[in-house]
Design brief:
The protein has 539 residues and is mainly β. It has 2 domains: 418 residues, no CATH class; 82 residues, Elongation Factor Tu (Ef-tu), domain 3 (Beta Barrel), CATH 2.40.30. The longest helix has 4 residues.
Length: 539
């Protein structure tokens, strides 16, 4: 297997951060992790409210290091809402952390970035009762104005009208749900649709039984029948909730399965969730879940969306945090944020939802000039483990990003508890995934140089093969062999593109004649992302 660059992908990585604010007692940081072996040149571009702008910020990030950039001190970013687009000449991981005092509620929250905008987003969590304020943040990084619609899923028996607005290109907007019709004093999940690709997050500020703070999360782009939530704790003054949103038109039967520390177990919890509704499940009161670490696997008969929220008092630090679930485990995870100095404690949580023991390794990226040895351990099937980074060699009083690799599929989150300039709270995030596209050497991409010489295309006598005739042996054609897959985009000579497997090659008289059969996408691309935007019109 070999990894090759993809023409449309390039060598750079792009990330979007919808939320950000630098006014009042808000501090906003962008955290960038370079886990690779190549130095990265990183550029931050900013989207401000309509009529405002700020210059780009650029810096170099050496291989195997990380950097924190405080936006508040950059030109043009004083006292403003701000969304950020991060581009890099080498793959990097990006998060954003914010620390604040929101109407007497001190705290902090954090979220990973988003790699690709979308026209549909789902936010399972939301609450507008008591001392909770819920905001939906929408970023339009494109060059076209977007018409955005928010649809709401409330507890069974309740509903609220849609909310619509226009979002100019290159701007962002914050919508407070508490003041919208039908959304007073209620649990609420949100489905966001847009006529142009956008990024969406949700921020909440609260006082939960004397625990003030805030939390934030990106949305997810699609529902799923399976979700994994690595973090969870029900001991002491910790309360853990699993939030499930059913945005569809069919009732869902939902099952929560739990992974506890080795030697412990708890029975499944099942419930029905009507179409177009949402539900909050507090884990603390379920059988077998008193005073324990707990990871959760959410399974459903129809596609739903799941998040997990926690409220706590951790060594005198009161607050709450939240994270989306992930719909698939991975063997590699990245955590851009982490700090062990002062009154910050950083934990990495690993969930093994499978049956087999996995070998796990942590590699750390510190500020330039610093390093720490890796950590390795085994995690048994159906269990979870919490690792406090502060206590590990070389990780005292430092910024730290973490790369987690495992011998099999696991789920990884990071939780932090802190006192930041007198603002006590905690924040949590799912890890980021970076899976570079893999195109095997047997895939040959034909561009204009090769297709310009395509002189004929005809079915073979038995109709089972497509015979392609080229009047010159140039470019990628020179390396084509039997068994290769040839691909092309849409051109005047290939109006439907091309995805064919070579069954015969004849080079004679300066010509190249290829006998081909249909190929599968899996044969051409071993791993990658496909994004397609289609306008649907009534039949």
């Amino acid at each position: 297997m070999s990894e090759a660059s993809v023409p449309s992908y390039g060598d750079a990585q792009t990330w979007y951060l919808a939320e950000g604010y630098t006014g009042g007692e808000f501090d906003t940081y962008v955290l960038v992790q370079n886990p690779g072996e190549t130095s990265a040149h990183v550029t931050l571009k900013f989207q401000l409210p309509p009529g405002h702008s700020a210059p780009d910020y650029e810096f170099d990030l050496p291989a195997g290091t990380r950097s924190s950039i405080q936006l508040d001190g950059l030109p043009g970013l004083s006292n403003t809402d701000v969304s950020t687009k991060v581009t890099s000449t080498a793959p990097v991981m990006v998060e954003r952390a914010m620390y604040f005092n929101y109407f007497g509620k001190p705290g902090g929250h954090d979220s990973i970035g988003v790699k690709y905008p979308s026209t549909v987003w789902y936010l399972a969590e939301g609450y507008t009762g008591g001392q909770f304020d819920t905001y939906v943040l929408v970023q339009n990084p494109g060059e076209t104005s977007a018409h955005v619609t928010l649809k709401f899923q409330l507890p069974p028996g309740h509903s609220a009208p849609d909310y619509e607005f226009d979002l100019p290109a290159g701007t962002r907007s914050s919508i407070q749900l508490d003041g919208l019709p039908g959304l007073s004093n209620t649990d609420v999940s949100t489905k966001v649709t847009s006529t142009a690709p956008v990024m969406v997050e949700r921020a909440m500020y609260f006082n939960y039984f004397g625990k003030p703070g805030g939390h934030d999360s990106i949305g997810v782009k699609y529902p799923s029948t399976v979700w994994y939530l690595a973090e969870g704790y029900t001991g002491g003054q910790f309360d853990t909730y699993v939030l499930v949103q059913n945005p569809g038109e069919t009732s869902a039967h939902v099952t929560l399965k739990f992974q506890l520390p080795p030697g412990h177990s708890a029975p499944d919890y099942e419930f029905d969730l009507p179409a177009g509704t949402r539900r909050s499940v507090q884990l603390d009161s379920l059988p077998g879940l008193s005073s324990t670490d707990v990871s959760t696997t959410v399974e459903s008969t129809v596609s739903v969306v799941a998040e997990r929220a926690m409220y706590f008092e951790y060594q005198g630090k009161r607050g709450g945090h939240v994270s989306i679930g992930t719909d698939f485990p991975s063997t590699v995870w990245y955590l851009a944020e982490g700090y062990t100095g002062g009154q910050f404690d950083t934990y990495v949580l690993v969930q093994n939802p499978g049956q087999e023991t996995k070998h796990v390794r942590f590699d750390f990226q510190l500020p330039p000039g610093h390093s720490a040895p890796p950590l390795e351990f085994d995690i048994t099937g159906g269990s979870r483990r919490s690792v406090l980074l502060d206590a590990l060699p070389g990780l005292s009083s430092t910024d730290v990003s973490t790369k987690v690799t495992a011998s099999g599929l696991v789920v990884v989150e990071r939780a932090m508890y802190f006192s930041y300039m007198g603002r006590d709270d905690g924040h949590c995030s799912i890890g980021s995934l970076y899976e570079p596209p893999i195109i095997p050497d047997t895939t040959k991409v034909l561009g204009e140089a090769e297709l310009g010489h395509l002189s004929g295309a005809a079915k073979s006598g038995d109709g089972k093969r497509l015979v392609l005739t080229f009047d010159a042996d140039v470019g990628a054609l020179q390396d084509v062999e039997i068994g290769d897959v040839i691909v092309s985009g849409i051109t005047s000579k290939t109006p439907y593109g091309m995805l064919q497997k070579v069954a015969g090659v004849n080079r004679a008289g300066g010509q190249v004649i290829l006998e081909t059969v249909e190929a599968s996408l899996e044969e051409a691309i071993w791993r990658g992302h496909i994004i397609n935007y289609t306008d649907l019109v009534p039949a």
